[in-house]
């Protein structure tokens, strides 16, 4: 398979599609990004890497970071984690409080905002300095000590994050947050503020295509079963209320963020990342989904 | 891989687990089945077949039949089908009317009851005699002219199916049923009444593991993309409100029925069917899920 | 108080307001009514009657008839009735299935469609020929043997009433309908098809302003406590999802119908009926509410 | 009518009923109250006052205070207030976030917690020092300069009020809170912490039975129409999800609090207050409702 050729030709094709969708604008830091940016990075499990476009510009990875926090928490407490968060798709908006009320404070999955808040709470209970240890974990995954939180974005999220403040206090009212909601929210906003490029993200997600082991140094992050399970959750819950559509069109487990990034995993083969900040109404990158849909069709590499 | 050995040893293990769960009892015909029945059938894409236990006793396949009606409707009208039914997991009970109200009569996916009713409606618009042509389609898939609807079960469902009557009329009130609700319900109840054995089911689902073509005569039922999409929908929506859990534990696309059957597909490899009538509270076969969970762990054959 | 003067002057004023709203059009029989009709009838508990405009033209009383069926059922089985239907406002649309699902088939109150269906079911269990005995009851209340069901309207409702068919079968699925849903629906559609004029309605509702006794012959229909309770339910639930607004603006217990009629009761004083077919988006008559709001302000006759 | 006799005999009767229900225990300050306390106070619009039992012991009036804040806000900005809060019964729990999500941050009425928070926000926008001016308003209504907030209760509510913090931030996320949520919550917790006795409450609510004017000095608090409207809202929304039941049983507009107090108004006649800390599962005082139900039956003083 000539991956570089496939990527290049699809990139040309999707680049030339008219711009559709809108940049996330609920905080100024996201709103000011250039809507024309478009990058793709692919890394095979043998560490061969391919990239095109703006693959080396850092962007706000936002909800994609929830996979990192989940992986770290899962590695720390194992299947006990499922006492605190469910694994079912939500069927409603990612920041809906309705379902939480029906489910008595048990978030539907670790990728809805409520679930990610509970994961942050778990990290705070398990780690002495969750903020720095989580960053260390991500730097280690990507073999890159320069990855950072963005204090500006985190601060801006805090100032505007009334819905998330509501979610966290709501879950606390059911007893499923152990630390003070304000502290959990701080970690959550930091987590979502991480900035990485397509290439960096692709590299750092590769362990999920490699049975839980890093491909560069063989370090075991998660065991086989845990890895399979995180991929399964990405498959059913990774794209907000568009997870079925993504599974249907692309056929790979993945995770998106409102910064316009998408990560997708083909178990045993590769990790691929796209970035284009223009989002559809469900909050997922228009060009990213177009690209990935054609990529799996072209390569016949859907898992289904 | 010595499949027969794996199947035999897992069958022994799961057979000896204490009986848990309850037989579906909303109609007498289902309630009277022997709860100790347990069968497994596996068919590889090269037509090698393996079976153990009560793999040749016919049982009521119930909702598993919704995959047949979906495949036939999809083959008839192509992607137009998605104007009438969505592809998202429901996040609520399979016969919930709540979500239909919020979604203005567009069922969340083809496997919730409302979605299957819409599919039946489509078949009635496309076919002169939907009931007999649907049966012919299924007989053809299984190379078995003896497969039949069960008039007793269909009649019993009709007498007790107030929730389904409600669903069908509710969707009709939104305009998303074209035929008379009573006629659509008749076809739906017939569809769910089909009786097949594990071995028959496993054979008839094999085209979904073979890119849409029958393995016995090469007949193309669906194209590559359509096949991939049905598998994707089974992955996200095949197990009612336990789809995430099944994806998480078993890691294969599949479909269950309240008769206690479960079908699972490993693309390009096999189709496997289990049958044990004792259901958990979500309506899925307890032993079936146990068996499949261990089968994919043992064979490391999850798609994730 | 010179009632005729108050009525005349308010009638002139509201008549001259520009036409707003829309005639109910879900069945042709309702859609073809003249939108300019406007009538008012007031009857005091001493039987003095006042009327103006189209007060003697018969119209489809629709949901107003639900007060008749409730009164009859209440007189037959007393407080046992509240085992089958609740007395709380619904907070959602009058034909919503959502709340019924949450409440396991117990309708929120006797005036939402589900509640009225349960009341019809009770009448069928209590009466040999519910259809004719219910009509006799209403004729007796109004001292008028000419009141009739409209077969045309009932037939049209049956043909188009998919939502109500859904509701009735849904409640049946929870066990809170004892007769066959089709039979209950027949009675329900007949009930809603009754045609009466403002003057006839005003007379027939007067017992609710007179502690449960007819004012013409003293016949006791309900006891004091039962009468008070029906008035209380009209206060909190009589106007679909606009009950609070009506209580707030008009301050009297009442009931509206999609035919454009409104009945309101001032305990111990009078029964007043307005009719104008143009409805607001909540399904209540625009001119009727305007008229009654000014009537209670002008006469300072709110109960609050 | 010999009110003292009626009150005494009903008090004896209800006092002797076995204790049922439970004291509110979500904060320690409420949990430690003596469950046997039971007091009643009645004040006629001519200022004649009747009392029995623990009518002069101060208790935490909790949600009853929401009528004070509503009256003050209504007097300040008039009908503009209904742009910010609706007047419909909620049909769901008093602190539900579900309905707020469906209604895009517009609380269903001023007495659900969300509505009371919006009223506090309005007061903060209108008044220089809302906390002290609100207290002055209440002291004036009761002609009693000794009425106070309870700093202990307010502090305890703040520490445990995660659900209310969630509500306030949730409404803020829709833009229907103008001040900082933390400041609005401070005022809200202070408001609910007010302590008054039955006699004090009865006196201070009497203006609502007197067309908006205080009975002691004739001071006009609200106009006729505004008074009628607050009474109407108390009728439809004063008792959480039991408002229909209370209207049905007692037939008077009223308001309850989880401290065990209930205020009810008979327009033009009287204001009556009961206090017994044992609550039913809907959060309303068991003995209070029993007493009032029999009081209006005995005196035939229901408004219906």
Q: How are the secondary structure elements laid out?
A:
The structure is a homotetramer.
Chain A: H1 3-15, E1 22-23, H2 28-31, E2 39-44, E3 49-53, E4 59-60, H3 65-77, H4 98-102, H5 113-126, H6 130-142, H7 151-160, H8 162-173, H9 181-192, E5 195-196, H10 198-204, H11 224-237, H12 243-249, E6 254-256, E7 261-266, E8 270-275, E9 278-279, H13 286-299
Antiparallel strand pairs in A: 1-9, 2-3, 2-8, 4-5, 6-7, 7-8
Helix pairs in contact in A: 1-13, 3-5, 5-8, 5-9, 6-10, 7-9, 8-9
Q: What is shown here, in short?
A:
The structure is a homotetramer of 304-residue chains. Chain A is an alpha+beta fold. Helix content of chain A is 45%, strand content 11%.
CATH architecture of chain A: 3-Layer(aba) Sandwich
pLDDT < 50 runs, ≥5 residues of chain A? none
Order of helices and strands of chain A: HEHEEEHHHHHHHEHHHEEEEH
What proportion of the residues of chain A form beta strands (DSSP E)? Answer: 5-15%
Mean of residue pLDDT values of chain A? 94
The tally of strands of chain A reads: 9
Total number of helical segments of chain A? 13
CATH superfamily of chain A: DD-peptidase/beta-lactamase superfamily
What top-tier CATH class of chain A fits best? Alpha Beta
Q: Give the radius of gyration of chain A.
A: 18 Å
Q: Write down the CATH topology of chain A.
A: Beta-lactamase
- What profile does the largest beta sheet of chain A have? 5 strands, antiparallel
Shape of chain A: globular
Number of domains of chain A: 1
Task: Strand order, main sheet of chain A: write it out.
Answer: 3-2-8-7-6
Largest interface: A-B, 36 and 36 residues
